[in-house]
Amino acid sequence: MGYIIKTDDSARLRLGIQSRLYEQSSVDLISRAGTLRGRKILEVGCGSGAMTLHLARAAGPQGTVTAIDNSPAQLDASRELVTENGFENVNFFEGDINCLDHLDNLYDLVYCRMVLHHVADADHAIREMVRSVCPDGYLLCEEPVIHDGSFCFPPSEAIDEFIRILRSCFSVNGRDYNIAFRMESVIRNLGLQIEHSRLHHPLLNSRQDKLLYAMSLSDLAPQMIKNGIVDPSSASELHEKLVHLSNSETTMTWARMHSVLARKSNGTERHYSKA
Ligand SMILES: C[S@@+](CC[C@H](N)C(=O)[O-])C[C@H]1O[C@@H](n2cnc3c(N)ncnc32)[C@H](O)[C@@H]1O
């Protein structure tokens, strides 16, 4: 089963807003993952490359970033961005997070943002990433929280309805929308030491930021309609309500990201042998 969200230009616009909202916190967490200059970094599900740039900068010219995604279109966008910005230390591969054993190296940092909730077996994906971390290296996973509907003040029925159908869509497609909160215990049970755990709630201040929910609905609507979760006219009615909400100056909305930075000590190996 493939990626259930569109990966075209409109989806990239939405990803651009999300990246901007989370960028500062993500860069701060990367800076906590030891000295990365001259080191090997693996980014899984690099998308259109927003974080690939920061990772390439952190590794420096003597270090390398291996960026993997299972979408050729996303890899093309990411490659273009990295080249435009003059980085020559990034290697791109088309590949699946569930199958990282073809990689020859172990990495000082394995980084993965907003990918695990798209994967059919997120626990297996985490095991694969843990196996790719070198002794004393780090794993940094960041996942958006779509656990409940509390993303708005005053409360909005449209946001609640959107979160309800979003969760249905992930469930019907066998995705774990609770992985943002589960991943910390999964990582700990694989023997890694949790060094930092953060729940970040950036506010969506401008009209364009507040459009995030309407944009997400547009990107997911074809899959939701295909799965019978919503009919086309209800989807377009809900879309209108979400656009309307983004125009309101008195409504506050926000997004959430849970991030876990974990370290693998030398004794970790016995816990994560392949299942
Ligand atoms: C929401 S985007 C996040 C992109 C990027 N990590 C960021 O934070 O901007 C999710 C990315 O994961 C990729 N992806 C989804 N399932 C994957 C899988 N099984 N293996 C590798 N990449 C996957 C998608 O193609 C998409 O580029």
General description of the model:
There is one protein chain. The strands form 2 sheets. The protein has a 7-stranded mixed beta sheet, sandwiched between helices. A 3-stranded antiparallel beta sheet has the order 6-9-8. The protein has 9 helices and 10 strands. Helix 1 packs across helix 8, helix 5 crosses helix 8 and helix 5 (157-172) packs across helix 9. Helix 3 (72-84) links the parallel strand 2 and strand 3. Helices cover 43% and strands 21% of the residues. It has 275 residues and is of the alpha/beta class. The protein is globular, with a radius of gyration of 19 Å. It has helices spanning 9-31, 50-59, 72-84, 122-131, 157-172, 179-189, 207-210, 212-226, 232-246, and strands at residues 40-44, 64-69, 90-94, 107-113, 133-144, 152-153, 193-200, 203-204, 252-254, 257-263. The longest helix is centred in the first third of the chain and has 23 residues, at 9-31. The chain has one domain (9-266): 3-Layer(aba) Sandwich (Rossmann fold), CATH 3.40.50.150. The site of S-adenosylmethionine has 21 residues, from helix 1 and helix 2.
